[in-house]
Specification:
Elements lengths: L2 E4 L5 H13 L4 E3 L10 H4 L7 E4 L2 E4 L1 H11 L10 H37 L5 H26 L12 H15 L10 H12 L1 H14 L9
Parallel strand pairs: 1-2
Antiparallel strand pairs: 1-3, 3-4
Helix pairs in contact: 1-3, 1-6, 4-5, 4-6, 5-7, 6-7
Length: 225
């Protein structure tokens, strides 16, 4: 198999690449690299030491946004980047909004204390960690969600009239939130919540949610409408 994605499946950045490949119908192999205990020579593949990386034959690339842009050129159909210039730029903006703005909050302040820390330690979530994560949801995440709620409006997709990298980039971190038992409140963010529900129900993403849930999704039942 030519295309290999290197990284841990629960990473929203790895998930973004895997979802894009699935939407394009491209077969690939997942090489489960743990960024905390990477294999020898990992920096030669990913100079920043991060996941994912991609191997396509003898070629390697790092960074999910770079990888997705490459895959769009490598496998152009169906197109997942808009062709109209402004819509193209908007799609890139939403990807950066999530990757550079939202995920750095979700990861250390919600997903790590509520999912990874208890998984690694074998101990339940401490009350202080639960309260701190909830505070992050009610302040930082609420601001992000307010923006996304306005931007989705009455549309099915965030940019244009069909699925794009913007929608994939927005949906993938919400899988990590789902694992943590968190989702946009339906009453307060109805359009965003409907979008997230639609995206997580797509075969490309649902397969990954189902794959990850046994290990990481034990809090999903806590999600409130």
């Amino acid at each position: 198999m030519s295309v290999v994605v290197l990284g841990a499946s629960v990473s929203p950045f790895v998930r973004k690449v895997r979802t894009l490949l699935s939407e394009k119908g491209v077969a690939y192999e997942l090489d489960p690299v743990n960024p905390f205990t990477p294999p020898d020579g990992w920096r030669s593949v990913s100079p920043l030491g991060k996941i994912p990386a991609l191997r396509d034959g003898e070629r390697t690339l790092a960074d999910s946004s770079v990888i997705c842009a490459y895959l769009e050129r490598r496998f152009p159909s169906p197109a997942l980047y808009p062709s109209e210039p402004y819509e193209y730029a908007r799609a890139l903006w939403f990807e950066e909004f999530m990757d550079g703005g939202v995920v750095p909050v979700i990861g250390p302040k919600v997903f790590m204390p509520l999912v990874l820390a208890p998984l690694f330690s074998g101990k339940p979530v401490e009350a202080a960690a639960e309260a701190s994560a909830q505070q992050t949801v009610e302040t930082d995440l609420a601001k992000f969600w307010e923006y996304l709620e306005r931007e989705i409006g009455e549309r099915e997709y965030f940019v244009g009239s069909k699925l794009s990298i913007a929608d994939i980039a927005i949906a993938c971190p919400h899988v990590n939130l789902r694992h943590a038992g968190v989702a946009p409140e339906r009453k307060r963010f109805p359009r965003l919540r409907a979008f997230v529900d639609r995206m997580l129900g797509r075969p490309s993403l649902k397969a990954l949610v189902d794959e990850e849930t046994p290990a990481f999704g034990k809090r999903a039942e806590r999600i409130r409408d």
